[in-house]
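Pasting as-is:
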Amino acid sequence: MRTEFDRVHVTAHGNVAVLTLNHPEVMNAASVSMIRGAAQALAFIEEPDSGFRALIITGEGRGFCSGANLMEAPPAHRSPSEAIGATLETAYHPFLRRLRDCRLPIVTAVNGAAAGIGMSIALMGDLVAAARSAYFLQAFARIGLVPDGGSTWLLPRLIGLARAKELSLLAERLPAETALQWGLINRVFDDAALMDEAMKLAIRLADGPVSLGAIRRLYWQSPHSTYEHQLDLERQAQQGATRTEDFVEGVGAFLLKRPPTFKGK
């Protein structure tokens, strides 16, 4: 089953949804229409009765996302600087926040170039898998801009300040293998195996308990918290987890020494 949105399509693979950025002619450069299409696709995937329990994000063709679509003309009544600021605030930022707050665990399958805002989208995955030929690029300095899409928040936390500044100031390609060594991503696979392997990861997540959503939320909350505050957030989340059917199933399976069958409830 395939559902179309603007420059994006969603395919269902059991309880795994695959959201594919779909403008291969420009290596899926992110236009405003694409980002809004992706936001609509995400709302569709997150509907309570959708049956989806995990999400894969990837790109059509030979690229994941080559960055913002620079061929997109700004509105006639705005200067380029006004247009860029407005586009970030009204399109890209809401979509990135939606990914952060998604109730489903996310696997990003980086099948080629992930540059600029495309790199930010790729790194929003809870698990980031990349093709061996893929690369990551903080391209902003090449055209006289600064990193956006949350890059200056994400990168120091993932790989440290020195490497984050190196990527952004030198604007050099980071091959997938090096990204794995640096701890920026989780897995690297041969190109032909990427989607199959990403699907295996997503199925494992989809078969997991509903508490996976709470786990990803706690990790997003942790950089803003003191130790004491995080302990309290964990307490609240744990209390919520104990009220789920999956907790009852998990404990019962443990006591009976059998694999659990979680329902995501």
